Amino acid sequence: MKDKVPKVTSLYKALNLLKYFDHGQKDFGVSELAEKSGLPKSTVHNILQTFECCGFVTQNYSNNKYSIGIAAVDLFGQYRASHHIDYRASLCLREMSEAFKVNAYLGLKQGEDVVYLCAETYHRRKDDEINRIGARIPLHCTAVGKILLGYSGIEERTAYYSQPLRSYTPYTITDMNDLRQEVEEDVYRGYALSEQGLMEGVYSLAVPVIVGVEPVMYGIEVSALKPFGDYDLKEILGFMRDKSRIIAGYFVGSST
After folding, report:
1. Is the pLDDT reported for residue 219 higher than 50?
2. What kind and span of H or E run contains 47?
3. Other beta carbons less than 10 A from residue 9's beta carbon
4. Which pLDDT score is estimated for 60?
């Protein structure tokens, strides 16, 4: 798979600092971020000072640590609005998460990846870097990515199949023919499964969110720490399909 090379390296390194502010730790000192990122402390300090001027981070002067600022929240709000992402979609995901004790996501297809726009987490592992809004994952290694790949145009699918696929676990599908066959089966039955394709011990299930007659760009996914049994699969799928229709209605309602 082709890797994108940042054109402005200094900007790339600076923006990457924001990724460390997640559910695991909400605030950092300069030394902590320097250790995590590998950047000099002086560089991290200058970046954070600049981010503070823009409102992307805010400093707690009682302990000199930084946390995400309101400008970053506003920016994501603008993104959600521009993509007609209704807050009620998050409520649908939360219902699924609580009802079945799973993580639930709304994914958007962007090029060769799927990006999580909404995330409701029930379980979280220390080594899990994907249970968050904004996570970007190659299409072939997770259920929502595969179902969205299946609904892509012929040229787009052909281009994806022609590239080498990165292996994340011993269970990741990296053979082009195997992937093509599985994606075709996913579209035929209307849902996709991924068993430990991205992380060992994590199993995911996804259905598309079909909005009108436009290309299918959205999907909802749930992930669990054990395989989906036949009974659970049937029950969860029924729930997910109902919610996918509801969420599709939010998109339609927001775009009119």
Report:
1. yes
2. helix 41-54
3. 9
4. 85
